[in-house]
Amino acid sequence: MKTLTLLLLGMGLARCIFAQNDAPNVAKASEFAIPVSPAFDLLAVNPSQILRPNNIREFKVDWSFRSWRLKPNLAIQAQPIWEIFYNRADLQTYQRTSSFLKTLSTLDFSAGTIEDDSQNRRVALAAKINLYRERDPLSDIELFTVDTTFNRLQSSRLSMMVDLQLISNRTNISMREKLRCEQQLDSIQQEYNNLDKLQKDNIQNLVVRYLRSNWNASHVDVAFGKIFAYANPQIDSLELRGQATAFWVSASKGLGRKVLITGLFKYIMQEKRGELNFANASGNIFSMGLGFRYGSPKFNFFTDFLYSQGNAQFVMADPGLNLTQLSAYSITYGGDWRLSRNVMLSYGVRTDYTEKMQFKNIIPVANLACMMR
Length: 373
What we know:
Blueprint: H1 2-27, H2 38-43, E1 60-66, E2 73-78, H3 80-86, H4 92-96, H5 99-104, E3 108-115, E4 121-133, H6 141-144, H7 148-168, H8 175-214, E5 219-234, E6 237-255, E7 259-273, E8 279-295, E9 299-310, H9 313-317, E10 329-338, E11 343-353, E12 359-371
Antiparallel strand pairs: 1-2, 1-12, 2-3, 3-4, 4-5, 5-6, 6-7, 7-8, 8-9, 9-10, 10-11, 11-12
Helix pairs in contact: 1-7, 1-8, 7-8
Protein name: DUF3078 domain-containing protein
Organism: Haliscomenobacter hydrossis (strain ATCC 27775 / DSM 1100 / LMG 10767 / O)
Keywords: Signal
């Protein structure tokens, strides 16, 4: 009987600990947005060509649908340093760490693959780190600290449950007294569960209000990536036909409560390979652009303008060399729709123009991003 009593006490304490740790887990779903993976940005299958800098805290998967093709493209994204060292139920470890380590925890890696219009398979690998963030929800100790009132009430209910359980386990009490203790235990257990739910709802409401007020907070991201293009002459073989290395900086600045200005500078070094696997062409592309977003964390609409220039005339005209499929001028119109705290739908219509501003192409793109939690 003593062993059983200790076991019940341990189960009660464990239940209390896990219930209280669920509240910070609710607070972790505090991304200002769910941006498209940097790997998709390299492959030019993102709805907006001015990638919105932001910071995610979970594994993410992206599906992109470009033009009329129903075959989806796939990308995955993760933050291994955050996942290994800071993804805990208790946020205090992250909140107490240095600013440098907090910045290091934003390092994420992504990988994506698509089949382009020439039926070539393109693969991208990218690494990105957030150098500046105006707001960091998980560092806001006052915002996400568990309410001490809820903790005090839950501790009181837990103590009452333990006392009733000890009385119920006695051998010298009557059956009527035992049943009365069990009824009271069930009632207090229900009160405990209700307090736990109220605590989670309270924090979730705080998160929603926080995101509504700060969705357009300023950020600066730096990224590096590589692209590989493969021809598929046979069903069971791939041949490397080209590769590119890219470095880019993206930044955003909020104006008021509904406007977000985004900017991008990108440098791409590209190389095309011939049949004998030697380099027969190379070239560099510089890109810069500006974007404008208006709306809220749930709905926002954007338009962006991107200008690109190669170091030689043939660089951007050769589809086997221009692996990022950039045009001299591109104007994109679209928006983001956050379907839930874990899912965001992004869509856009891209119009491409030549150096002389002659209409060249129009491409519809849709992307579905899902946080894996």
